[in-house]
Design goal:
InterPro entries: Stress/Tellurium_Resist, Tellurite_resistance_TerA, TerD. The two termini are 46 Å apart. The protein is 4% helix and 40% strand. It has 2 domains: 160 residues, sav2460 like domains (Lipoxygenase-1), CATH 2.60.60.30; 196 residues, sav2460 like domains (Lipoxygenase-1).
């Protein structure tokens, strides 16, 4: 159902998927979807802002699912379990921000509300009148008489995502005010003490105020061929963990089904992709993290890298995730993240992908993979190197051709000079 600005429609679904889509191309800014959960027209706290740096609401009801290439376009998705939204939340604002330009440069911008269970389209609003805006409210889900509705809004902001978020009560990169000590005065002569009244029981000490909440960070990094690397230290990613996700869509093969690692979508049960990593530690030890041979690694002991499992059917809603312990960055010399086709296809031809590295403390790093034009069953995604204590992420996006009689792992090893000994494995 295509909507006009200001119109509304009922949403007869328990859970919905909200997709923002646009046409990609030279000079087109990147677009990011976000959601704000409002009570009384404002967020209750910064935790009610769901976006790429804060992808899951504490209630679990609203999530940022991430980008997915679709032919010549791109989709960024949010999911909402409407039955699980807290009762005091009256509206969920669906917004977008443009990175590197204004929405007047973004062709084909639209928002669709889909039934998460069956995929049926419940509402669609195409935005056609944006000009200089760098943030945009496309629509909102709201409660009315115990049911949910969707309204097409189409309201823009010239102050970007920071201005939009601040308008709804989010604290954005605002340093806390320093606590000033009381002014010092010269001591005066003590006054005569009056007759003391009977002693009262001591009052309970006041409760300590909660620590100030750190403002929301809006920073993100997009790697390109022209700017293919970034320092995690300079982006604030120096501690905690870093999660690696790969969004993958099959465009022509496998009956149009898609494969998504890290944020699962509809999947072809015959296509089994494996997210893997080669590692070299500071002490010279080398190895591989992969489902093949059950080499899942460990997060809190060497190699400080962990693969959470092997999703062979797409039934796992969280897909496959690779996590790196940044608290042990000094113990890592280099890490190469790659993906292989285990079964279901011979090549990555006709697929597109987006890689996202999400540090726990710091800006997410993302980049798009190039189209595969060779017969490749292994793709090197990103190389992380320790450069004088600073972890640097290098965009690889490199499809490799496995020689006859070799394996994808051996092929990656030879291309990057890891020098390991390989034996056949299974899972």
């Amino acid at each position: 159902m295509t909507m006009q600005k200001g119109s509304n429609v009922p949403v007869a679904a328990a859970s919905v998927r909200v997709e923002l889509s646009w046409q990609a191309g030279p000079g087109v800014p990147d677009v990011d979807a976000s959601a704000l959960l409002l009570a009384g027209g404002k967020v209750r706290s910064d935790g009610d802002f769901v976006f790429y740096n804060q992808p899951r609401h504490a209630s679990g009801a609203v999530r940022h699912e991430g980008k997915q290439p679709q032919g010549a376009g791109v989709t960024d998705a949010l999911s909402a379990d409407l039955g699980g939204v807290e009762g005091e939340i009256e509206r969920i604002v669906i917004a977008a921000s443009a990175d590197g330009g204004a929405f007047g440069q973004v062709p084909g911008l639209c928002v669709r509300v889909l039934d998460a269970a069956g995929g049926a389209e419940l509402a669609r609003f195409d935005s056609a009148d944006a000009t200089v805006e760098t943030a945009y409210v496309l629509g909102e889900l709201y409660r009315r008489q115990g049911a949910w509705k969707f309204r097409a809004v189409g309201q823009g902001y010239g102050s970007g995502l920071a201005g939009l978020a601040t308008d709804f009560g989010i604290s954005v990169d605002e340093p806390a005010e320093p606590v000033r000590a009381p002014a010092q005065t010269a001591p005066s002569a003590p006054a005569p003490a009056p007759h003391a009244p009977p002693a009262a029981p001591p009052a309970a000490p006041p409760a300590a105020p909660p620590p100030p909440r750190e403002p929301v960070r809006l920073t993100k990094v997009t790697l390109t061929k022209e700017a293919p690397s970034v320092s995690l230290t300079k982006q604030g990613g120096t501690s905690g963990t870093m999660r690696v996700n790969l969004n993958w869509e099959v465009q022509k093969q496998f009956s149009g089904w898609g494969r998504k690692l890290g944020k699962a979508m509809a999947m072809h049960s015959d296509l089994d992709l494996d997210l893997c990593a080669l590692f070299e530690l500071a002490d010279g030890r080398k190895g591989v993290i992969q489902a093949l041979g059950n080499a899942y690694g460990s997060l809190h002991q060497p190699p400080f890298i962990h693969l959470d499992g092997d999703d062979r059917t797409g039934a796992n809603a969280s897909g496959e995730n690779l996590t790196i312990n940044l608290d042990h960055a000094k113990d890592l010399r280099r890490v190469l993240i790659f993906v292989t086709i285990y079964e279901g296809a011979r090549s990555f031809a006709s697929v597109n992908g987006t890689v996202t590295l999400q540090p726990q403390h710091g800006a997410p790093v993302e980049f798009h993979l190039d189209e595969c034009t060779v017969s490749s069953n292994v793709c090197a995604l990103a190389l992380i190197t320790n450069e004088s204590g600073d972890l640097v992420v290098h965009r690889e996006a490199r499809y490799l051709v496995t020689p006859r009689g070799s394996s994808p792992q051996r092929t990656v090893d030879a291309a990057y000079g890891w020098g390991m000994q390989w034996t056949p494995g299974r899972k």
